[in-house]
Write a structure and sequence with these properties.
With 245 residues, the protein is α+β, with helices and mostly antiparallel strands. The chain is built from 6 helices and 9 strands, in the order αβββββββββααααα.
């Protein structure tokens, strides 16, 4: 039996509308498979992989994901972010509510999670490629617990210690003597003047620029501003002065 043409048309419309409704409902529901406590294993920034080096203290980081909320736990305390996830996309999309918002994509395989996020000024990533000069970070995480309930007293240190081991004290900082401090100040006063500079002067200038930018706005600011023009040279110089980390 043949169906009337208008009946076929309305059936097709109903299928399309139903598919749209299902997609929107799916995107509005927070995916339960993301809920849990995730340990950051490593990150890829500007094409280079960075291990977390938990054994030396520092760089201990957890992502606690629950419906609509992301808590990033580090040694300096937790950071609370609103989290919106759209699992109907392939790969999945996520947005954080921090100002400015961060847009990213994610890929989940069991208890392993891969996340790629871009700088706020850059459009959402479309893949997990990360090369030199690409302003997006890739983070690899592993789930250590499906219980994302925050501690009643707000103290995350016991959980951090259970996952990473006891926290080790930070190494004591070295201080400049008066002669070294005066030298650094003399070099910094040459801002804007033409060279030629000696190699040691270039080291002082580049490292001072790095410290200033990172302390003011983070590595994103260092790379985004003109200081980032010397990023490769600065990385080499940090290794030369015994500061590879």
């Amino acid at each position: 039996m043949k169906l009337p043409r208008h009946t076929i048309w309305w059936v097709l419309v109903a299928i399309v509308v139903g598919a749209i409704v299902v997609a929107r409902l799916r995107s509005a529901i927070f995916p339960p498979e993301l809920v849990g406590v995730w340990k950051v294993e490593r990150t890829q920034i500007n094409g280079l992989w960075h291990g977390r080096d938990h054994e030396l203290g520092g760089n201990r980081e957890l992502w606690v994901i629950r419906s609509g909320q992301l808590t990033i736990v580090r040694g300096d305390g937790p950071e609370e972010l609103k989290l919106k996830v759209d699992s109907s996309q392939i790969p999945g999309h996520f947005d954080t509510g921090q100002p400015p918002p961060v847009r990213g994509i994610y890929q989940l395989l069991g208890d392993d999670l891969r996340v790629c996020q871009s700088l706020p000024i850059i459009p959402r990533p479309t893949d997990f490629q990360n090369e030199l000069g690409v302003f997006q970070n890739v983070t690899v995480l592993h789930r250590v617990s499906t219980d994302a309930t925050p501690p009643a007293d707000g103290n995350w240190r016991p959980l951090m210690a259970r996952i990473f081991g006891p926290e080790k004290p930070a190494p004591s900082q070295k201080t400049f003597d008066a002669e070294a401090e005066a030298y650094v100040q003399r070099v910094m006063l040459q801002i804007g003047e033409e060279g030629p500079w000696t190699e040691s002067q270039r080291v002082v200038w580049n490292v001072a620029e790095l410290i200033s930018e990172v302390e003011n706005g983070g590595f994103h600011q260092f790379l985004y501003n003109s200081s980032g023009d010397n990023a490769a040279e600065t990385a080499t110089q940090l290794r030369l002065i015994g500061a590879p980390k």
